Amino acid sequence: MSSTFDLYRKITALPQGKRLFSVLYGQKAPYFASIHMRVQEMKPHLGQVVIPKRRSVKNHIGTIHAIAACNGLEAAMGLLAEATCPPGMRWLPKGMDVQYLAKSTSALTCTAETTEADWAGAPDVPVTVKAVTEDGTVTVAGTIHLWVVPAKNR
């Protein structure tokens, strides 16, 4: 279990814990902070964040920009990977294949999911991702490809 997952479990047990963890996780990479995400779920094989619809993530037509949605998908994948990656291993994203299916007209719930079978195929691990509006419309869907290898001793 990673230190990120340990931190998630400890902090989210506190009042306002998910809010606090969301801020901390958003600081892990500066581009995560740019989407103002709220972490909804972190557990093995599932990561989920919500991107609120606000000016900083909108494009010229007033919808959530596709790349902001991709940042949310990558953040959700990172939660999943931190909670799922076996001890002694490390993960690295090696690619993202996504399709933009509809306009993102409301807040987005970005979800990343895997199965045990996906991880059994390491070092190549596909992570299924999707971004969904409040009315259930899937606006972005695809796969983030991970490279899962033994961690190097430092």
> Tally the helices: what do you get?
5
Domain module tally: 1
Strand content: 25-35%
The radius of gyration computed from the alpha-carbon positions, rounded to a whole number of angstroms, is 15 Å
Distance between the termini: 18 Å
* CATH class (first level) name: Alpha Beta
Class by helix and strand content?
alpha+beta
**Average of pLDDT:** 94
**Strand order, biggest sheet?**
1-2-4-5-6-3
CATH T-level topology = Thiol Ester Dehydrase, Chain A
CATH superfamily: Hotdog Thioesterase
- Helix and strand element order: HHHEEHEEHEE
In percent, how helical is the residue content?
Answer: 25-40%
> Which parts are unreliable, with pLDDT below 50 for 5 consecutive residues or more?
none
- What is the 3D form? globular
Protein name: DUF4442 domain-containing protein
InterPro entries: DUF4442 (IPR027961), HotDog_dom_sf (IPR029069)
Task: Describe the protein's topology.
Elements: H1 3-11, H2 17-28, H3 30-33, E1 38-43, E2 46-51, H4 66-84, E3 89-100, E4 108-113, H5 116-120, E5 124-133, E6 138-150
Antiparallel strand pairs: 1-2, 2-4, 3-6, 4-5, 5-6
Organism: Aeromicrobium wangtongii
Protein name: DUF4442 domain-containing protein
Pfam families: DUF4442 (PF14539)
Structural description of this entry:
This is DUF4442 domain-containing protein. It comes from Aeromicrobium wangtongii. The chain has helices spanning about 5-10, 15-30, 30-35, 65-85, 115-120, and strands at about 40-45, 45-50, 90-100, 110-115, 125-135, 140-150. With about 150 residues, the protein is α+β, with helices and mostly antiparallel strands. A six-stranded antiparallel sheet has the order 1-2-4-5-6-3. The chain is globular.
